[in-house]
Amino acid sequence: xxxxxxxxxxxxxxxxxxxxxxxxxxxxxxxxxxxxxxxxxxxxxxxxxxxxxxxxxxxxxxxxxxxxxxxxxxxxxxxxxxxxxxxxxxxxxxxxxxxxxxxxxxxxxxxxxxxx
Amino acid sequence: xxxxxxxxxxxxxxxxxxxxxxxxxxxxxxxxxxxxxxxxxxxxxxxxxxxxxxxxxxxxxxxxxxxxxxxxxxxxxxxxxxxxxxxxxxxxxxxxxxxxxxxxxxxxxxxxxx
Lengths: 116, 114
Fold this sequence. Notes:
The complex is a heterodimer of chains A (116) and B (114). Chain A is mainly beta. Chain A has one helix spanning 100-103; strands at 4-6, 10-13, 19-25, 31-38, 42-49, 56-57, 64-70, 73-78, 87-94, 106-107, 111-115. The longest helix of chain A is centred in the C-terminal third of the chain and has 4 residues, at 100-103. In chain B, strands 2, 4, 5, 9, 10 and 11 form a six-stranded mixed sheet that branches. In chain B, strands 1-3-8-7-6 form a five-stranded antiparallel sheet, with no helix packed on it. Helix content of chain B is 0%, strand content 57%. The mean pLDDT of chain B is 92.
């Protein structure tokens, strides 16, 4: 089974801190994604990457950056955390290409980030 | 504007009945639509995918329909069990998108009572 591992389940940070959220997948997937999930709003795409060192903005990239130095690892960076970035952050991965096996996303368990 | 909507109110049903969840979308022409299950404190888990040229897809007790005219997908769980209690998310792949970028609904919470 594919495993997507997020480094922390819970994080508490202060306003203005630089925050790193780490995600590792073990199935050699090309695509990796960062979503945030807020009550009533669903999952919103922050950034995604379809290859090492490649990244593209999602729907809500402001205040975030990402890094993908190795295929298995995709990091989300909050440059200067703010209270409105308190949320559940979910990492996901998928294979490249078409077909059900490739088009479904595999998610990590999420990181609940609180910014005080 | 583009929207994908699921019932925000929880659906409460009796064990053994069929649960039906709705996903409506506007201003998208999705290539396919997916359904995920999410348990509290966990990430979503993929259940089913249905393409724009398919009317219905089944997997065990699950059935998904896709009506591109109504812009709606229905997700059915037959013979529901308390273990089916969870939040169910629909997600669509915009035809113009790539790299499996999915747009998610906010989810509907299902509670199956014994």
